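Teaching note: in complex prediction, the entire set of molecules is handled at once rather than each chain in isolation. The prompt given to students was simply: 'Predict the structure of this complex.' The entities are:
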Amino acid sequence: MSTNGMTNWAVDLANVGAIYPLQGMEVLLVVLGLIFWLGWHVLQIRQENEDLDKQARLLGEKQEVETRDLIGLY
Amino acid sequence: MGTQLDALTTIFTEFYYWVTIVFMFLIHIGFCMYEVGVSRRRNHLRTLMKNTMAIPLVTVTFFFFGWWLYFAFPNGPWITGGIPEIASKIAAPWSPLMAPHLSGPSPALGVAATDAATWHRLNGVFWGAFLLFSITTASIISGAIIERVRSGAFWIIAVLIGSVLWIIDAAWGWHYGGWMVQKLGYHDAYASGVVHAIAGGAALATLIVLGPRLGKFRPDGTPREIPPHNVWLVTIGLFLIYTGFWGFYAACNIPIISPTTIAGQITGATWTATNIYLAPTSLSAITFNFLMSLSGGMMAGYIVSRGDPFWTYSCGLCGVISTSAGNDLYHPIQAMLIGALVPTIAYKLHYYVENRFKIDDAVGAVAVHGYGGFLGVVVAGFMLWGQPSSPFAGYAAITPWGNFIGACIMFALGFVPIYAVCLLLNRMNLLRVPAAAEVQGLDFPTTEAYTLAVREIIAVERSMVK
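The expected output is the structure of the full assembly:
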């Protein structure tokens, strides 16, 4: 049993091709990868919108002034 | 790898590109330091993350489709031919050669022994080297638009420029079989146009739609200076970009190849290094010219800016960029003079465009990369007029008009699509942060959370002492 078909290295390397696990499932892996990438953009934009909305609501409040003072004027 | 010499050549080439990739990573450390140094204190964490996250995003998308585009589009497609078969064989994301693979065939997965023999060793490092060019192209835009762009918008732009647009222009004009090389005699050996002009065009498009930072222009339209918060960090960042640029130059060469493998018009049995077009060059040639053009740019930048560190370093970078199109063939003194002239023009253009069109380019990226790269390609057309663009028969020779058209294509390929995307993002209110957030600073949420945590822990500590 081996996830890449290799159980030992007693082979002629000129005859060995792919050595990663789950060979034959490359297209599925690509689909999963694309979902991960596009999903990241969706989550990131959602997070950024929430942060900016929250930030805008604080404009002029004491908490906002204190935080800005901490960052420094420049 | 049929013979031991073939094996050694392949393994040397693999190692060579791997080293260039590591060197090129310094460019991104430099970009991060540079941008953080230029941004104001209230923005530097967001500025850092904006540039940093371009690295993974361009990486994964360059794996999914960027590398395939390079091999798929050298013919346009359908200008000099269709989509070559090699694209799906070695560069599609589901190809077994885009993963750990040894030198034998994978018949069940469609990999022939002839493809595996070379590509199992070279595909990953070629992909990595091109990827580092891709991330550089995206990073160039990042600095221009700091302190008011939404990170999410920049990352969409970064993927488009890094994994789609630049790699299409590379397939067209930075590939031994690219249609621009064949038909126009386009010559841009170290990427003045294919990396820098396209990035400059994209940066300009983004800046036009994005608008200037709040307070950048006075009511009468004259610009205010928004100085870097840390000039030291800026200059060290630029030094690191210079260093990484060495790796970039080396990565543009093929280190060793035989005339038989090139299969062009070169006769005899002398092995050589070549540029990306498989035309002969050497590391020595580009070492002369890299350093002389850098020096020309720094010396000119010092004079035109009256010793301003930011512009002296930037003009040094622009000096290299402006000669990159022809640095495989220029005399070093030619490289120095071109490297002095073009940055001077780019510097003047930066301030002209800022005053005339109210473009707030925080780091001068459009000038250094856009104008510098564009002019560099144009100058190469004149300097190398009539020289062969390729070792292959039937290709157009290098001409001023071929390179001028090529430079326009490069700039426009960055400008037009990115302008359209920015208009769309702007309409969706996803391009620019709200004015309140810009005034508070982009680091506000992080600093606020930090402040609350500090207050809480101090309060708890004090209560425990009682």
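Point out the following to students. Residues 22 and 55 of chain A are 46 Å apart (CA to CA). Chain A is about 55% helix and 0% strand.
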